[in-house]
């Protein structure tokens, strides 16, 4: 048996040489597949590029030019569950497009934005998805999970959605329609980055719409570093659907984050027969929010219930206009139930109530407050 000891620079050179020879080291470099989309680019529509994703593509980057033309094919974008596909990024590339004059390119580079109005639904199917800075889907609803309709069943293990551009809505879970069942067996993660904006709402869970539709997830995590109107840690239900989060619904509003309308630890239900169920919720506020609720939101005859504990923490440096430990129901026929709530930092809010809110003959239970 021969023992060899090397010291100093000799050891560095030997280790470098061994790493160079070792093919395993290449596994640390993620495989990447890039596709350009727009007039004059290899793909005319975003859907065309998604259809062309090869096996073992690794990280797929779809670069979208301002020359892209509206296409019905792009109304619904579905990320394929192709073997070896690790994540997908949609990117704005203002310099793409052979027909873009240099003066326009200069202006686009300054704005760094590409607007695509023809995208309405994006389904990540459990593949980690990012909407890059400067990319605007003004009509787009982004789902981390899958779509299930007409009594179909769609299941993914977990989801991860990051928004650095601008979209209309974001759901960590999937979309269940008219009897469909969309399930996330594990956790969902939604990140709104500092450059990100969501025009309407962010939900940690899925969206169930229509009779017997059902969307569910285990634990949810919503982190807001950018700006959005509404934030929900849980799921959403409408037109007779049912959505739930069976674990913990979590919402964190970063110091630079902003909710311009209302933030809820739980979910939201609208229209008769719709129901949202939340087990526990955790809300922590470092940034700026108008209304903050520990529980759920019900309107237009929807019903919501939080069966466990709603926990709220408000940082002393946060800006909160109104803080409620409970839930919110807005009109006749709407109802909310909430079991328990615990609030820390209530004095940091301009106004605080340890109750729920009911308006226009709605029904709302108040939580039992834990100290």
Question: Which key features would you list for this structure?
Answer:
single chain, 371 residues, mainly beta, 2 domains, 16-stranded parallel sheet, 11-stranded parallel sheet, 3 helices, 8% helix, 48% strand, disordered N terminus
Task: Describe it.
With 371 residues, the protein is mainly beta. It has two domains: 90 residues; 252 residues. It is 8% helix and 48% strand. The protein is built from three helices and 35 strands. It has a 16-stranded parallel β-sheet that branches. Strands 3, 5, 6, 8, 12, 16, 20, 23, 26, 29 and 32 form an eleven-stranded parallel β-sheet that branches. Strand 1, helix 2 and strand 2 form a beta-alpha-beta unit. The longest helix has 14 residues. The protein starts with 7 loop residues before the first helix and ends with a strand. The N terminus is likely disordered.
Blueprint of the fold:
Elements: H1 8-21, E1 32-37, H2 46-51, E2 58-64, E3 76-78, E4 85-92, H3 102-111, E5 114-115, E6 121-123, E7 129-131, E8 135-143, E9 147-149, E10 153-156, E11 159-163, E12 166-171, E13 175-177, E14 181-184, E15 188-192, E16 197-203, E17 207-209, E18 214-217, E19 220-224, E20 227-232, E21 236-238, E22 242-253, E23 258-264, E24 268-270, E25 275-285, E26 288-293, E27 297-299, E28 303-314, E29 319-324, E30 328-329, E31 335-344, E32 352-353, E33 357-358, E34 363-364, E35 368-369
Parallel strand pairs: 1-2, 2-4, 3-6, 4-7, 5-8, 6-8, 7-11, 8-12, 9-13, 10-14, 11-15, 12-16, 13-17, 14-18, 15-19, 16-20, 17-21, 18-22, 19-22, 20-23, 21-24, 22-25, 23-26, 24-27, 25-28, 26-29, 27-30, 28-31, 29-32, 30-33, 31-34, 31-35
